Amino acid sequence: MSLNLTGITLSYPDGDSRLTALDRVALDVPRGTLTAVVGPSGSGKSSLLAVAATLIGPDAGTVTIDGTRTTGMTRGELTELRRHKIGIVFQQPNLLPSLTAAEQLQVLAHIDGRPPAKARGRALELLDAVGLANHAHRRPHQLSGGQRQRVNIARALMNDPTVLLVDEPTSALDHERGAAVVDLITRLTRRQATATVLVTHDRAHLTAVDRIAEIHDGRLEMPTPAGPDGDGPGPGRAAAAG
């Protein structure tokens, strides 16, 4: 398994008591598979993603990324782990206005100390993979909303992560563009062999994912196989339980 959450419990202060955001969540996602986590606002989706990304430490339970348990790791060690093992597709692309599509990706490689020529080649390869080979020179204001989200996805893959975490990628897109983005994430999961978790409140575009897990009040329920109309077997064998 490339992503494993075991017994994850997370709570936040709520006046004189604490509010449970995640309640003994367990999730296993192998490389090359995509698990969608669906649920209404406030159900725990964002908290689950933040814990999986090692941005928040749980009250209890363990997070294992590509065989590495994160329990007890320092802040610096977690930063290094995220840099090399985890790609995050944020809900809003948050692209830098002054940079071209290719430069949005290259800046990450620059931070990581990669040679510029190698970084440029990798950036162009990923932009081609997301269908933007002819848009590498364009800046955010010259791209549509769907194209900016594609740059966002390519950027998350720049450092060859083993785990890809995707936060509500279709929230600002219409139905057609949303479906295209989820299809792209599904295809890239297979191609890049990432262990992918996609959180969303919308089931409409999830027919091709491997598993759909439902979260309610912080509890992750046994997922159903994805497929046509959400009731057929999906193409992979990711598993989750809670």
From TrEMBL:
Q: Does the keyword Transport apply?
A: yes
What's in the keyword line of the UniProt record? ATP-binding, Nucleotide-binding, Transport
Instruction: Report the protein name in the record.
Output: Putative ABC transport system ATP-binding protein
Quote a single Gene Ontology cellular component term. Answer: plasma membrane
What are the top taxonomic ranks of the organism? Bacteria, Bacillati, Actinomycetota, Actinomycetes, Kitasatosporales
* Any GO MF annotation of the entry: ATP hydrolysis activity
Q: Which InterPro entries does its entry note?
A: AAA+_ATPase (IPR003593), ABC_transporter-like_ATP-bd (IPR003439), ABC_transporter-like_CS (IPR017871), ABC_transpr_LolD-like (IPR015854), MacB-like_ATP-bd (IPR017911), P-loop_NTPase (IPR027417)
Organism field: Streptomyces echinatus
ABC transporter domain ranges (all copies): 3-242
Location of the region described as Disordered in the Swiss-Prot/TrEMBL record: 220-242
The record's listing under PROSITE patterns reads: ABC_TRANSPORTER_1 (PS00211), ABC_TRANSPORTER_2 (PS50893)
Recorded hits in PANTHER family, A to Z, give: ABC TRANSPORTER RELATED (PTHR24220:SF685), IMPORT ATP-BINDING PROTEIN (PTHR24220)
Q: Indicate yes or no for the key word Transmembrane.
A: no
